[in-house]
Amino acid sequence: MTENTQVLFKSRPTGWVDASHFEVVKTPMADPGPGEVLVRNIFMSLDPYMRGRMRDQKSYTPGFELGKVLQAGAVGEVIASNDPALTTGDLVEGRLGWETYTVAKAELVNKVDGKAASLSHYLGVLGMPSMTAWIGLRNIGQPQAGETVYVSAASGAVGQVAGQIAKMHGCHVAGSAGSDDKVAYIKDVLGYDAAFNYKTAASLDQALAASCPEGIDVYFENVGGAMLDAVLLRVNPHARIVACGMISQYNLAQPEGVKNLSTIVGNKVRMQGFIVSDHMDQKPAFMAEMSGWLAEGKIKYREDITEGIENAPAAFIGMLKGENFGKQIVKIADP
Ligand SMILES: NC(=O)c1ccc[n+]([C@@H]2O[C@H](COP(=O)([O-])OP(=O)(O)OC[C@H]3O[C@@H](n4cnc5c(N)ncnc54)[C@H](OP(=O)(O)O)[C@@H]3O)[C@@H](O)[C@H]2O)c1
Prior knowledge:
Layout: E1 3-9, E2 22-28, E3 36-45, H1 49-53, E4 71-81, E5 91-97, E6 101-105, E7 109-111, H2 128-141, E8 148-151, H3 159-168, E9 172-177, H4 180-189, E10 194-197, H5 204-211, E11 216-221, H6 225-232, E12 235-243, H7 263-266, E13 270-273, H8 283-295, E14 303-307, H9 312-320, E15 327-331
Parallel strand pairs: 8-9, 8-11, 9-10, 11-12, 12-13, 14-15
Antiparallel strand pairs: 1-2, 3-4, 3-6, 3-15, 4-5, 5-7
Helix pairs in contact: 2-3, 2-8
């Protein structure tokens, strides 16, 4: 009997997530029912939105169930199929589990081409985070040549793509991140015009003034809290704030207040949230454009790969604290 190593959602965090909220168990591998496939998971994505799914409150995505296997975007290989659309050996991506094997409805997974790209790319640069950057800039940010675009969490899964797309639009692009190595990567590899370490900057206001001397026309917001407050003091008339995420708030029992919101009135600023999964009709256009940019070397992308499903909880906690350098992925098995 083949064993399945699974990570269960053991208890609900109220502040910071820690190892006690997870449990790693070994169970027998399940058999697929009619219309289902058994997937050998290979790479799994860890994403900040998962922290939201640990809350017991209404959200755009259903919460994780206590005692059940946590879910994640993953890619894997079909090793048994009870559906004519998929056969053994097919490579698929979809909402699978924090586990070595997942039984999934065949209609809920999509075939991917293992020859066209590295399988882990379907979780990052050719997957949800990169599409988030693409959609956010296209639909809300709409950067124009000569404008200033500022990206927070700029070395992360979403941020690294957002800044590079803004550069392609002919913008002055600035970013921030939480270590000097990340700042060097943003500038030297991704080609941002300016970058700063928000943890060591004398003040966020001064760092933004130095990085964005002409003010901010588009803020790609990944962080919230004090960073948003500082940006609000530097926005230009008709600035757009792409409210993608506010990770600084996700582990706080009480969210921080934002004091400088009144600047959006006189500056006629537009701040708009969005959720990438509402825009899946645009996925083919995203895949075509991003694959082209990758092939032409116009987009660089860094992944941070943790080995072993049993190390997923530590990697998830580390990502929320900024220990990841690039898109956080867990390698569960060899391709
Ligand atoms: N709207 C959507 O559909 C959608 C989809 C995907 C992601 N998102 C959002 O996009 C944002 C980025 O997600 P991602 O997947 O690209 O994650 P990521 O940037 O790869 O990883 C999270 C990063 O957030 C930074 N961070 C953590 N705490 C912070 C704090 N208190 N202040 C400033 N930065 C902090 C850390 O980098 P540093 O070392 O730089 O601190 C950490 O590495 C998140 O807010 C996420 O919720 C939204």
